[in-house]
Amino acid sequence: MSENKYVFTDTQLNSELERLRLLEKVCDPLSKRLILATGITTGWQCLEVGAGAGSIVRSMSEIVGSSGRVIAVDIDTRFIEDISLPNVEIIRDDIRNPNLSLTKNSFDLIHVRNVLIHLADFRVALSRILNLLKPGGWLVVEEPDFSATRAIYGNKQDCQAVDRVNQAIRQMFSDRDLNYSLGVLLPSMFQQLGLQIHTVENDVPIVNGGSNVATMMNMSATQLREKYLATGKASEEDIKNYCQFAEDSSFWAIYVATVGVVGQH
Ligand SMILES: C[S@@+](CC[C@H](N)C(=O)[O-])C[C@H]1O[C@@H](n2cnc3c(N)ncnc32)[C@H](O)[C@@H]1O
Fold this sequence. Notes:
Strand order of the largest sheet: 3-2-1-4-5-10-7
CATH superfamily: Vaccinia Virus protein VP39
Oligomer: single chain
Bound molecules: S-adenosylmethionine
């Protein structure tokens, strides 16, 4: 198991919760659409891997009802410990742990979002996840693609500064042996694992400053500032400009793309 620390591990509790809630606002519409496309219904056994602030756990819990169950596995359960729903169980563990207390072939649906990109050995994680799916069970994975990021409209110097920070983000992932464009690999990975692919979606929002996506990336830049600087690709001034750009409604950019894949075991 790769020992690389999750990049947001040392972030402040309140600002990390705020960032995760914003992430949910940005990502939940696509996730809910993909999850509903599986035919999820009452009685299903579901697993949420890396639950973050838990919006998808709550949503699946409501759909599967009292005859179903949702298990959330996360290495950091600080933001989901307050969930007290009778059909939800929270497990604080690493999804790659071979001794994870979950039964093989027991889930109808497993959802994973923005987790594998943080794991150098994402293939190990994916094979463990696959072992947990029932034959005929559904896997929904959504991961970012940071190769799509770029400033689109703003003054030339600001756009250049934004793109240097985009380079720093990519370098931060590469320096940790992480694949910053993991999202685009998902369809081929599903195919190689023998999953039947039902849906592939690539969400590439073009947004302006002040939007939820821009604000979320601004928060990430504030939290990960030292890590961006350590790459040598962006300066303090670049990060300051990036954060200002993200607040200005006349500046437009692609900050991140998300690839979502739905497959059946
Ligand atoms: C970027 S957050 C995404 C949260 C949520 N999936 C979402 O998209 O809103 C990544 C989450 O994965 C969890 N995580 C990271 N590595 C993990 C691992 N090896 N096993 C289980 N959870 C992990 C983190 O603690 C965090 O809650």
